[in-house]
Design a protein that fits this description.
With 182 residues, the protein is α+β, with helices and mostly antiparallel strands. The protein has two domains: 3-80, Outer Surface Protein A, domain 3 (Alpha-Beta Complex); 83-164, Outer Surface Protein A, domain 3 (Alpha-Beta Complex), CATH 3.90.930.12. It has helices at 3-6, 59-80, 138-149, and strands at 9-10, 16-20, 23-27, 32-36, 42-46, 49-53, 83-90, 95-99, 102-106, 113-115, 121-126, 130-135, 161-164. The strands form four sheets. It has a four-stranded antiparallel beta sheet, covered by helices on one side. The chain has a three-stranded antiparallel beta sheet with strand order 1-6-5. It has a three-stranded antiparallel beta sheet with strand order 2-3-4, covered by helices on one side. It is elongated. The relative contact order is 0.14.
């Protein structure tokens, strides 16, 4: 049995979940999310928690069981608390600033790079080198943070670029051929 799929998803106070066949709608203080799930997996609302069950032990149903439960948990957490990713910019002259709803990045290119977030995602800039991406949909927040990071990923030799705040860079030593020669 799936260890993840068997766990019930607790619904916090102020969050409302409706199940219409294979579609689930979650409403909370932060907003509303709706998603369709595979019709073979059954979702039941009992005693303030969501339970996910599968019809058989086939490989497809086993894989969908844990996936469905994780997606439901992310929906409930997103509408009640929200999700957040923090990015850091390292490098001399590298900076970010908010220009209206767009993010303007100066990260070593000849021109500034403009990034406009998708709907439902908020971007704030703290200082000149911290970017905070927030929203209720975990997938969209993570994808937006990854797109911002891909503009200038952190260099493994000098550490310059955009990286996640909790990401640890292992800097490489670089060339060592010139050290011994004089």
């Amino acid at each position: 049995m799936s260890r993840i799929g068997l766990l019930p998803v607790a619904i916090p106070q102020g969050t409302e979940v409706k199940i219409n066949g294979s579609e689930v709608v979650a409403k909370g203080g932060k907003g509303e999310l709706r998603r369709r799930f595979h019709p073979a997996i059954s979702i039941a609302l009992k005693d303030g928690s969501l339970n996910v069950t599968r019809p058989s032990d086939s490989k497809v149903h086993r894989s969908l069981h844990g996936l469905t439960r994780s997606l439901l948990a992310n929906m409930v957490k997103g509408v009640s608390e929200g999700f957040e990713k923090t990015l850091e910019i390292n490098g001399v002259g590298y900076r970010a600033q908010k220009a209206g709803d767009k993010l303007s990045l100066q990260v070593g290119y000849a021109n500034t790079v403009e990034f406009s977030p998708p709907p439902g995602v908020g971007i704030t800039v703290e200082g000149t080198n911290r970017i905070r991406v927030t929203g209720i949909d975990k997938e969209v927040v993570g994808e937006t943070a990854a797109k911002i990071r891909s503009i200038r990923p952190a260099d493994s030799y000098k550490g310059k670029g955009i990286k996640y705040a909790d990401e640890k860079l292992h800097l490489k030593p670089g060339k060592s051929g010139k050290i011994g020669k004089k």
